[in-house]
Amino acid sequence: RPANLVLGYGSQGERLVAGVVPLSADKTKVLLIQSVRRGGWVLPKGGWELDETAQAAACREAWEEAGIICRVEKDLGKIPDARPASQLTQNAPKASYQFWECTVVEEKAQWPEMHKRARQWVSYAQAAQALTTRPELLEALKRSSMKR
Fold first, then answer.
1. Considering only CA atoms, which of 99, 26, 102 is closest in space to residue 68?
2. Residue-level pLDDT at 1
3. How do 45-47 and 68-80 pair as beta strands?
4. φ/ψ of residue 86, rounded to 5
5. How far apart are CA 83 and CA 95, in angstroms?
6. pLDDT tens track for 14-36
7. Rounded Cα gap, residues 133 and 135, in angstroms
8. Coil/strand/helix, residue 59
9. 146 alpha-carbon distance from chain centroid
């Protein structure tokens, strides 16, 4: 991604992050991807550029990080960053998250970040367990209509 694109920031200086909760058509599985920075499993998400909407950014991140084409079903709202100040860094400043529930329409065999990320379909219980260290991602999962 070109370095000169300006990422969005909120009124409190927080980084604006858009993401998706990518569900199977029957809503029994969610697609998680490997976190490049910390290992572990996360939802596709990323900062959005000022020339696109947050929803467009969420779908673009889903493609770049997970290789999926998504149909947005529902706005899951804004989720504040729950990390204590001790966990915030220059590379990971305070963020404000905006998530959408979407149905995965297509899963491509090749995608931009395929060499640095694995992806896996998991149940609600498996996803909730995997996301325990990321309260904002767990909250997005909980707000989704995925079958428990």
1. 102
2. 44
3. unpaired
4. -60, -20
5. 9
6. 888 999 999 999 999 999 999 98
7. 6
8. helix
9. 15
